From TrEMBL:
Residues 317-330 have a biased composition (Basic and acidic residues). PROSITE patterns: N6_MTASE, SAM_MT_TRM11. It comes from Scomber scombrus (Atlantic mackerel). GO terms for cellular component: cytoplasm; tRNA methyltransferase complex. It is found in: Cytoplasm. This is tRNA (guanine(10)-N(2))-methyltransferase TRMT11. Belongs to the class I-like SAM-binding methyltransferase superfamily. TRM11 methyltransferase family. Catalytic subunit of the TRMT11-TRM112 methyltransferase complex, that specifically mediates the S-adenosyl-L-methionine-dependent N(2)-methylation of guanosine nucleotide at position 10 (m2G10) in tRNAs. This is one of the major tRNA (guanine-N(2))-methyltransferases. Its EC number is 2.1.1.214. Residues 11-182 form the tRNA (guanine(10)-N(2))-methyltransferase TRMT11 N-terminal domain. Residues 315-335 are annotated as: Disordered. The keyword Cytoplasm applies.
Length: 465
């Protein structure tokens, strides 16, 4: 195999899945950042295209990204491209032969695949296209079953299924390097998971969140609204140690009513630890505990490499916190006396996010990431509504539509500095922060006229499952 010094100016082509469209760029950027690499799009880069050419990478980077990505399907070392097969031929004939020769040796085996996006080709047409590549100096023997090298001709017929052109808009040819982790979406499906709840996060989104949080082996990850632990499951798959809290005793202890069809009560071992055991990652389970995310229960230190969470929106689960009837008499240090009887109070959404950002500013390591979902009433949404904090830099903000009027936005922030005394309150005065206060009424708006039909049909699914 040629070394990188012999083989220069390599470009890589990524084939992206078309689901999770808005999450692809933040995911790939985060995986690049995890390897200390910038995002360098090639010319004519289009974010919504199924094909991206990226510069400035080596094969090891590409394999590292593909070992994590659920948005990318496959990656190829790009050898040529063009708007027509003639342009592709010219491009391929100009490709440095020293970049190709290691894969074209006489004693090697290979196969060529044809992949068409937005068009299905009959088998004979595929064969014709492969035969037409005979101008390339393949020296080896074809092996369909177990080739040493796989090459791929990729044709892009656009993204409109109602307007498929006769000829492709663009054609690429390259050497296959690696496939992404789409399989995780199936193998970690909540349908087959031991312990689930009404709001369990689907596997694809859990892995996207984990990737956007740049979670890596031996990291310590915390979910303050842990529920059934779907986000912890995804983090533990990549070797992170995981822990979480939830206000709901039954959820943490795996008791109470089952969310499964035909099961009234949860079984004896339905809990988060058992979920990790199911996937062979129990050794990364630290613990979960019953705790109110609005209360300070952690020692004051930067404890976590990432905080990943799906806070309650009050649609399928209540937004509650503990408090006191005499909250006006709350002690200044926040510590109640032994005679204090906690009661459940409503927890306004804007407070949830204030607390979450403050908590993250205090308990993330520098460079650590907070990834969370923010519910949005679409007619009123503007970017200024995204809660900010002086210690957290906004990295990405992408939308998942839930209904015509509601959506949730996946927010990724990175800790850039330790909080100073002035920081804990300063962000509340920030004009950027206050607009979200209006979203206190998200629940009312969700259940307002616009969503009535959805609710009636019982089809509204806040978790995108
Ligand atoms: C959307 S669910 C999280 C679902 C979780 N990601 C999963 O995959 O199962 C939100 C969770 O927050 C919990 N919760 C609500 N208020 C809370 C509070 N004040 N402190 C901690 N947890 C709370 C609820 O009990 C619920 O389990």
């Amino acid at each position: 195999m040629g070394t990188s010094t012999e083989r220069s100016c390599l470009k890589y082509l990524f084939h992206l899945a078309q689901d999770h469209l808005d999450f692809r760029l933040p995911e790939i950027k985060a995986l690049l950042a995890l390897r200390g690499k910038p995002f360098c799009p090639g010319e004519n880069f289009k974010e919504k295209s199924p094909f991206w050419c990226l510069d400035g990478l080596c094969e090891e980077d590409v394999c590292g990204i593909m070992a994590r990505s659920v948005c990318a399907k496959s990656a190829f070392e790009l050898w040529g491209r063009g708007k027509t097969h003639n342009e592709l031929k010219t491009s391929l004939l100009n490709y440095p032969s020293e970049n190709m020769s290691a894969f074209m040796q006489k004693d090697s085996t290979y196969r060529i695949n044809v992949y068409t996006f937005n068009k299905t080709l009959e088998f004979p047409d595929r064969i014709k296209k492969i035969d037409a590549m005979d101008y390339l100096p393949f020296g080896g023997t074809v092996s369909l079953k177990s080739p040493q090298h796989i090459f791929c001709l990729l044709e892009d017929y656009g993204t409109d299924p109602n307007n498929i052109p006769e000829h492709p808009n663009y054609i690429y040819f390259g050497r296959w390097v690696a496939d992404g982790q789409r399989e995780l979406i199936r193998s970690y499906s909540v349908k087959n998971r031991h312990f689930i709840g009404n709001t369990s996060m689907d596997a694809g989104l859990s892995f996207i969140m984990t990737n956007q949080a740049k979670v890596k082996e031996n990291d310590l990850v915390f979910d303050p609204f842990v529920g059934t632990g779907s986000l912890l499951v995804a983090c533990s798959h990549f070797g992170a140690y995981v822990c979480g809290t939830d206000i709901d005793y039954n959820t943490i202890h795996g008791k109470g009513r089952s969310s499964r069809k035909n099961h009234k009560w949860r079984g004896p071992d339905e809990n988060i630890r058992a979920n990790l055991r199911q996937y062979g990652t129990e050794k990364t389970y630290l613990d979960v505990m019953v705790s109110d995310a609005s209360k300070a229960v952690w020692r004051n230190a930067a404890l976590f490499d990432a905080i990943i969470t799906d806070p309650p929106y009050g649609i399928r689960e209540s937004t509650r916190r503990t408090g006191s009837h005499k909250d006006n008499n709350k002690p200044p240090d926040g510590v109640y006396t032994d005679s204090h009887v906690p009661v459940s109070q409503s927890y306004h959404l804007s407070d949830i996010f204030t607390d979450l950002l403050n908590f993250s500013a205090h308990h993330l390591v520098i460079g650590g990431r907070l990834v969370y979902w923010l519910p949005i009433y679409r007619p009123e949404y503007c970017e200024e509504m995204i809660p900010l904090h002086p210690c957290l830099r906004l990295i990405s903000n992408c939308e998942q539509t839930l209904s015509s009027h509601t959506s949730r936005r996946l927010i990724t922030m990175e800790k850039i500095k330790e909080p100073e005394e002035s920081d804990s309150l300063s962000h509340l005065a920030d004009s950027h922060f206050s607009p979200y206060q209006g979203h206190n009424a998200f629940r009312e708006k969700y259940f307002s006229g616009q969503n009535k039909k959805l609710i009636k049909d019982n089809k509204s699914d806040v978790n995108g499952e």
